[in-house]
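Inverse folding, one chain.
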């Protein structure tokens, strides 16, 4: 069943194969949908500048390049080596950006926080329940006081995703440390900005 929450986290090999088959498998550089979604995502960020930001699952670095001008330091990562190489090439002229290969949730950079911005874009629905809960916990745990967490996910059902986009956002909304400060939704995707608050 699509997005039933009972599936396992997608294996790392899935994404290695995706990037072996195409340099831009999701159409980040060519599809109007992606360009528009990224523009809306960046526009939703409430602060003009962020001191230390983290963007897991950066893919080939298209959103990374758009986030960079708003960040003093931006750590981005992806699990697929080909995606990391492409993101490094795309951001080579942006000295504030570091791109690393990391597989989540195990390689979450807890020692590099706290982050005043974390961007979870098209990531959380790839996790089974246990890894989703762990990833959300790590995000909350490394988000600075009053920090911003941006989450953006596809809402349509996908047969091999363990979660739906709405289920992924529900896991964030269930955390008492997070409060929604901006919410944009349409049939295709959901974008929300959360702020960390005292509990």
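Residues assigned per position:
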């Amino acid at each position: 069943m699509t997005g039933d929450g009972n599936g396992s986290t997608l294996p790392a090999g899935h994404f290695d194969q995706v990037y072996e088959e195409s340099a831009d498998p999701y159409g980040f550089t060519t599809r109007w949908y992606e360009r528009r979604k990224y523009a809306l995502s960046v526009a939703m960020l409430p602060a003009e500048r962020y001191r230390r930001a983290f963007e897991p699952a950066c893919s080939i670095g298209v959103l990374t390049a758009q986030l960079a001008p708003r960040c003093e330091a931006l750590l981005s990562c992806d699990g697929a080596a080909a995606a990391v190489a492409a993101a490094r090439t795309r951001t080579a002229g942006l000295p504030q950006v570091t791109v690393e290969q990391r597989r989540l949730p195990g390689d979450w950079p807890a020692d590099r926080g706290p982050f005043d911005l974390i961007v979870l874009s098209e990531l959380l629905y790839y996790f089974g329940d246990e890894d989703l809960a762990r990833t959300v916990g790590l995000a909350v745990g490394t988000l600075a006081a009053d920090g911003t967490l941006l989450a953006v996910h596809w809402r349509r059902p996908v047969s091999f995703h363990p979660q739906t986009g709405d289920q992924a956002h529900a896991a964030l909304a269930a955390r008492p440390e997070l409060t929604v400060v901006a919410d944009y939704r349409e049939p295709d995707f959901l974008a929300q900005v959360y702020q960390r608050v005292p509990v």
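Residues 1-5 have pLDDT under 50 and may be disordered. The longest strand covers residues 143-154.
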